[in-house]
């Protein structure tokens, strides 16, 4: 049993007394029974947090050893501030915090993680998802390589971010998250982006071993980026149809995907024609021969497959056999119309609409055909869907509209078409971001980026709206060093506006080493000596991040070198 336990596990906590045989199993661990002896937890608090009243912390921690350890590490890393000695008037057991924006000691693990997260790098969720999605704890070098290749982030910024994240890591190489952080993205749907990026990384670097190919299949199976049939095609391109497996691998989803891609599990070989594959490949004859023998689910999945490849003749066959297939939505939230729109098959779009498909329907995810076409930049399909009264402002499960999708991808022409057709430029998604926020945050800097920003501004985008982090468009442009920053400044009411962490646009630009952006902000009157919630100026932040050229520039503009 002990061999199956993770190497980082050193402490066993139980609410009942262990028998002698159980004690032998856990002979190399520290065992604490918190129900029998809560004083041990109190002693642990006093050891880890000697500066704070132990009774107060004991009440807030809800019996969590992780809470105490993580709180201690956060204090040592200056992510949180020490409580003052004054007691709250509302509760004698709670202490107010002197400078952090939380009013009390975080009450429970969830509140603690939220408080710490606000002080960690902007790309924290990206790192958490990649670490969680990895089959094995990734090495620091492998994680950095994956982010550089798939997310286009510079190595020095990733290194800086990982250094800031060390207080929440159990191990820094390989990267193992500490305690409850491992459960932040524990469900597949919450970790899709991490699986998608790992799949992209392996696809670009190659599958030189069978183990890597199976790992590739694992990430593809749990990724929501590609349609199921595209995942099968990619695996076949990497030779999945040439392998034989002695047993299922990893989980059902991975094994099923490999088998669909042509892998054989020994003693489970099936000689069965694949209707969906025939629809994908455009094999009209096979589809005709199998049409009467397949189930309703196979028929409807076949329509989605044929739609994604533009096989209008096969789509027509299936619709004649099952008219209701047009509105079927699969488990990945794809229907035939969204598949056709995403892949720019306007002939199939027309056919489906003629057969009564609901233009705005696409399951619980809410990602409509219009959003798919806007994301992919297919102008003709966007115009056709709008002409058929597609809801231009329909929001998906994340609150995102077609305009937001087009803006994020820098499709300036699509943005213009949507605005002309009544799209509201200032709708916010679930994170408080508008279309312009997303255009500026993508960091893509494509050839159409400047035009996309200009079209949104001309279309009525409010540059002073703040997202959930209290950041307006200038904050985001400064953080990413966007070349449209001078234009954006002209629309901002307060160039020194502070986000929820007290950071100004100048601080954010200096934290990322954007020399030109810093200079432009100062030339437009930005305060070089403004301080954030921790008393840090732009100069201090630049120095902490190792950007000497930014430090020299700030000093040349009169930044206070003596501030501490």
Write a concise synopsis of the structure shown.
This protein is mainly alpha-helical. It is 48% helix and 5% strand.
Structure notes:
It is a single chain. The protein is mainly alpha-helical and 564 residues long. Among the domains are: 1-37, no CATH class; 41-84 and 105-119, no CATH class; 124-190; 206-265, no CATH class; 275-358, Ankyrin repeat-containing domain (Serine Threonine Protein Phosphatase 5, Tetratricopeptide repeat, Alpha Horseshoe). 48% of the residues lie in helices and 5% in strands. The protein has 30 helices and eight strands. The chain has helices at 20-25, 39-48, 54-61, 65-76, 109-117, 124-133, 140-151, 155-164, 192-205, 210-221, 228-237, 252-260, 275-281, 284-290, 296-309, 312-321, 336-342, 346-354, 369-376, 379-387, 402-408, 412-420, 435-441, 449-458, 473-480, 485-489, 505-511, 515-523, 538-544, 548-556; strands at residues 11-14, 30-33, 83-87, 95-97, 169-172, 175-177, 244-245, 264-265. The protein has a two-stranded parallel sheet with strand order 1-2. A two-stranded antiparallel ribbon has the order 3-4. Strand 1 (11-14), helix 1 (20-25) and strand 2 form a beta-alpha-beta unit. Helix 13 runs parallel beside helix 15 (296-309) and helix 25 (473-480) runs parallel beside helix 27 (505-511). The two termini are 53 Å apart. The model is unreliable at 1-9, 85-103 and 268-272 (pLDDT under 50).
Annotate the secondary structure layout.
Layout: E1 11-14, H1 20-25, E2 30-33, H2 39-48, H3 54-61, H4 65-76, E3 83-87, E4 95-97, H5 109-117, H6 124-133, H7 140-151, H8 155-164, E5 169-172, E6 175-177, H9 192-205, H10 210-221, H11 228-237, E7 244-245, H12 252-260, E8 264-265, H13 275-281, H14 284-290, H15 296-309, H16 312-321, H17 336-342, H18 346-354, H19 369-376, H20 379-387, H21 402-408, H22 412-420, H23 435-441, H24 449-458, H25 473-480, H26 485-489, H27 505-511, H28 515-523, H29 538-544, H30 548-556
Parallel strand pairs: 1-2, 7-8
Antiparallel strand pairs: 3-4, 5-6
Helix pairs in contact: 2-3, 2-4, 6-9, 7-9, 9-10, 10-12, 13-15, 15-16, 15-17, 17-18, 17-19, 19-20, 19-21, 21-22, 21-23, 22-24, 23-24, 23-25, 25-27, 27-28, 27-29, 29-30
């Amino acid at each position: 049993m002990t061999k199956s336990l993770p190497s980082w596990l050193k402490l066993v906590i139980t609410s009942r007394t262990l028998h002698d045989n159980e004690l032998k199993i856990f002979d190399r661990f520290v065992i604490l029974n918190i129900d029998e002896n809560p004083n041990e937890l109190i002693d642990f608090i006093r050891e880890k947090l000697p500066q704070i009243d132990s009774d107060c912390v004991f009440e807030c921690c809800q019996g969590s050893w992780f809470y105490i350890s993580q709180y201690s590490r956060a204090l040592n890393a200056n992510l949180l501030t020490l409580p003052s000695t004054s007691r709250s008037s509302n509760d004698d057991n709670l202490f107010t915090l002197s400078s952090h924006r939380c009013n009390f000691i975080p009450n429970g693990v969830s509140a603690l993680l939220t408080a710490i997260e606000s002080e960690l790098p902007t790309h924290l969720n990206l790192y958490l998802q990649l670490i969680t999605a990895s089959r094995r704890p990734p090495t620091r070098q492998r994680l950095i390589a994956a982010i550089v290749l798939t997310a286009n982030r510079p190595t020095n910024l990733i290194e800086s971010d990982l250094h800031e994240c060390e207080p929440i890591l159990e191990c820094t190489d390989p990267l193992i998250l500490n305690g409850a952080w491992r459960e932040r993205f524990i469900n597949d749907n919450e970790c899709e982006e991490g699986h998608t990026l790992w799949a992209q990384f392996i696809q670009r670097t190659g599958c030189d071993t069978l183990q890597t190919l199976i790992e590739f299949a694992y990430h593809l199976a749990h990724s929501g980026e590609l349609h199921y049939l595209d995942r099968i095609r990619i695996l076949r391109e990497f030779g999945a149809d040439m392998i034989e497996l002695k047993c299922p691998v990893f989980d059902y989803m991975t094994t099923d995907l490999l088998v669909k891609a042509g892998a054989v599990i020994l003693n489970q070989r099936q000689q069965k024609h694949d209707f969906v594959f025939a629809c994908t490949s455009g094999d009209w004859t096979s589809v005709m021969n199998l049409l009467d023998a397949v189930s309703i689910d196979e028929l409807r999945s076949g329509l989605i497959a044929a739609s994604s490849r533009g096989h209008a003749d096969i789509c027509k066959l299936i619709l004649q056999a099952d008219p209701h297939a047009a509105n079927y939505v699969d488990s990945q939230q794809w229907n035939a119309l969204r598949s056709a729109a995403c892949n720019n098959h306007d002939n199939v779009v027309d056919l489906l609409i003629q057969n009564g498909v609901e233009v705005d329907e696409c399951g619980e995810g809410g990602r409509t055909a219009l959003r798919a076409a806007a994301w992919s930049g297919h102008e003709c399909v966007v115009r056709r869907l709008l002409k058929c009264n597609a809801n231009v402002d329909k929001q998906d499960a994340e609150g995102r509209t077609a305009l937001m999708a087009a803006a994020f991808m820098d499709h300036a022409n699509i943005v213009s078409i949507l605005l002309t057709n009544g799209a509201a430029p200032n709708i916010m998604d679930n994170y408080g971001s508008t279309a312009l926020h997303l255009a500026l945050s993508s960091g893509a800097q494509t050839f159409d980026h400047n035009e996309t920003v200009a079209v949104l501004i001309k279309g009525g985008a409010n540059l002073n709206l703040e997202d959930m982090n209290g950041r307006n468009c200038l904050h985001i442009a400064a953080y990413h060093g966007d070349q449209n920053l001078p234009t954006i400044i002209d629309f901002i009411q307060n160039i020194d506006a502070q986000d929820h962490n007290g950071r100004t646009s100048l601080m954010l630009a200096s934290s990322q080493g954007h020399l030109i952006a810093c200079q432009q902000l100062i030339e437009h009157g930005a305060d070089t000596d403004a301080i954030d919630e921790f008393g840090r100026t732009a100069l201090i932040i630049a120095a902490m991040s190792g950007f000497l050229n930014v430090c020299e520039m700030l000093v040349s503009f009169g930044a206070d070198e003596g501030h501490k």
